[in-house]
């Protein structure tokens, strides 16, 4: 089964960091986020990918190609104008002749979905969505399910208008005949357009409960949560770094100078230099190719090339020396 990954969004909710880096390339646990996603899917046995691109497409192509995946084929489809999460699929219809897996490029999950794929194919369903139970549904697609069938759907419901505690995870199995419901060369969204259209046309929509960890990291708060969850080892995904002490991970070519204290949990990326007299941690993630100034005190932060995601879940320009305010 082919996998289509939607990686063309602007990442507006993650501004200003996405002015310089597309959302799928946000570094997390010493890799670009989309690398973790693709590697998990390859571990599940998928080896044919279509990556739908628009914003900063060349940077994403270069990053994925640099992975040098063996026995994996990848095709890139670049939208000249933004066509939405469904509209872009019409550009790939000549690749999609059998049921395919569709995955949003701004999620991560660690579950095994292969049994659900088998059930979808055996049931001859046309559309299946993976759903997850959450406490607050307001920033997700809210799904009502009865006997395994989706019977109602509201995108980002207002408080008090939720129809269940289940949300759309952004993982779907789609049969290619449904692509003809999508208009050509027009903006068309899965949640706002395609799903309501299918419900209106009484198309049977399957729901599978996604097991394991899942997150949509498309906001600063949720991206901060992903960093914390990863260094707390809540994801069953590998970290490409050496664990030198419990929950302290170091990438390659890390230089740590004199009188540096590291308080777990911490993940430090490749080619990082930490000058003398620093305190790093707890709950710190440092991306690759970063130099931490002498005397810096970092905690509850994710540090990137130009920005730091701070303890208030806000991106600020890097000026990280001697940050010491406590978080409660």
Automatic annotation (TrEMBL):
Pfam families registered for this protein in UniProt: NTP_transferase
Occurrences of domain Nucleotidyl transferase (ranges): 2-229
Signal peptide: none
Domain of life of the native organism: Bacteria
Protein name from the UniProt record: Nucleotidyl transferase domain-containing protein
Naturally occurring in which organism (per UniProt): Gottfriedia luciferensis
């Amino acid at each position: 089964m082919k996998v289509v990954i939607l990686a063309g969004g602007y990442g507006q909710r993650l501004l200003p960091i996405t002015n310089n880096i597309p959302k799928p390339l946000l570094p997390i646990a010493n890799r670009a986020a989309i690398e973790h996603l693709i590697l998990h899917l390859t571990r599940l046995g998928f080896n044919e990918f279509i990556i739908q691109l628009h914003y900063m497409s060349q940077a994403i192509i270069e990053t994925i190609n640099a992975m040098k995946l063996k026995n994996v084929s990848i095709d890139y489809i670049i939208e000249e104008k933004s066509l939405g999460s469904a509209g872009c699929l019409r550009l790939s219809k000549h690749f999609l002749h059998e049921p395919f897996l569709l995955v949003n490029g701004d999620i991560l999950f660690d579950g095994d979905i292969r049994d659900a794929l088998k059930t979808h194919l055996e049931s001859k369903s046309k559309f299946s969505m993976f759903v997850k139970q959450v406490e607050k549904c307001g920033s997700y697609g809210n799904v009502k399910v009865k006997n395994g069938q989706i019977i109602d759907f509201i995108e980002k419901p207002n408080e008090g208008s939720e129809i269940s505690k289940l949300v759309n995870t952004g993982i779907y199995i789609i049969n290619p005949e449904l692509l003809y419901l999508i208009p050509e060369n027009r903006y068309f969204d899965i949640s706002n357009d395609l799903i309501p259209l299918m419900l209106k046309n009484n198309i049977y929509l399957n729901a599978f409960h996604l097991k394991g960890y899942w997150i949509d990291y498309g906001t600063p708060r949720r991206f901060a949560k992903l960093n914390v969850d990863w260094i707390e080892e809540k994801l069953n995904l590998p970290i490409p770094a050496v664990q030198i002490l419990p929950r302290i991970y170091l990438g390659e070519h890390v230089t740590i100078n004199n009188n540096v204290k590291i308080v777990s949990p911490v993940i430090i990326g490749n080619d990082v230099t930490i000058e003398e007299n620093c305190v790093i941690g707890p709950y710190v993630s440092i991306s690759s190719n970063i130099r931490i100034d002498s005397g810096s005190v970092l905690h509850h932060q994710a540090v990137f090339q130009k920005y730091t995601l701070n303890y208030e879940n806000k991106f600020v320009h890097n000026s990280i020396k001697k940050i010491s305010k406590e978080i409660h």
